[in-house]
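Translate sequence into structure tokens.
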Amino acid sequence: MLLLLIIFFCKAQKSRDFPAYPLDVPEQNSMMAKWEKKPVFDFKLIDDMESDGKWTVTSIGKMTYTQDRAKDGKRSLRFSTSLRDTAYLRLPGNQSEWGQMFNISGQAGASSVLLRFDTPQDWSDFNRISFWVYVHPTAKMFRHNINLGIESEGAVSNALTSARSHYVNDLKQGVWNHVIFEMPHLQRDKVSMFSITRELTGYNPGEEGTVTYDIDRLELQRVVTDQYEGWTVSPEKFAFSHIGYRLKDSKIAMVGSGAGDHFQLIDQKDKVVLSGKVGVVKNKNGVFHQLDFSNLETEGIYRIRCGSLESDPFPINENIWVQPVFKAVNFFFCQRCGYAVPGIHEVCHLDWQGFRGDVKKVINGGYHDAGDLSQGSFLTSMAAFVLMRNLEVLQERKVATEMTDRIRSEIA
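Result follows.
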């Protein structure tokens, strides 16, 4: 898939045969897809949901156990909540005279299911949380997310420590989603509580407004975790420009431990077009292994081979910048407010209104800010400026003709 996209952009940038927005998500390249493939060396079951009495629910959420489905065993934990806490919104100071929300922190509240431990648990031997979530299909609501929380006695929480929560986005409806979270950076020797939270972000007219999740098989796992701090490249991994390099620019890549002393650049026919020695750079940040192939100035699609390691393909092409611009415009399309974006949301924010005397007017439009939950007038104006600037460059260089039409559509 990646190779096909790169070939497409390098050879067909003047073609009008661009994929339709919104673009398909190449989930096979995601971090979660890579985590899913990791071998699990050990595990510890925390709760298989086969017995009662361990979980509690907060706020307006509802909790029960169900035998409708289970990932294993006979049942799962069912957690449901409306995305609007009507009673909370009616409290003094939480609504304007026109019924709009204001002065509300935390997106008007949250609902959670909590698992508290009478005796703090030592999770130090494990570095990953794993559980399964089945998302009940909801009318016109395409996006679902939850937030995981871990509390550990004695753990310090400030600007210099890692957040003890983790957002899980883009859960799919009608299937079991495997939720995994690597946590080697968290203190976890005296864990007193684990939580699964749904923030009450509200919902648009016509949407169902209530979400229901079936949760099963919560366990701890031990895996080889990703590198999460420092500047060195992870063992047996490359760090390079995935969008490619321009002809005359410096072309530098890095490689982690486990590679050889020499490297090669391989073309699409598996022919070696350049060989070089792996350089060693030492400074206060560590020891780094550098690959310099700046002398290669021939357009094409290449891979790096270093010892037994081989990178994904990347282009060398003067117009490599068009690919990220194309994808950035797709992002703006997906962030449109007051517009039905296929597979993402229906026409939204019809309840965002402006008032002058007795006159009120819907003021949706522009682009979303903060995960599709609100608009950002300042950011929308800045986005329009950036789009116009890119439009000028595309017109000056006479590349990617259809891109100009798409950018005009966004600006309008």
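Note: The CA atoms of residues 112 and 197 lie 4 Å apart.
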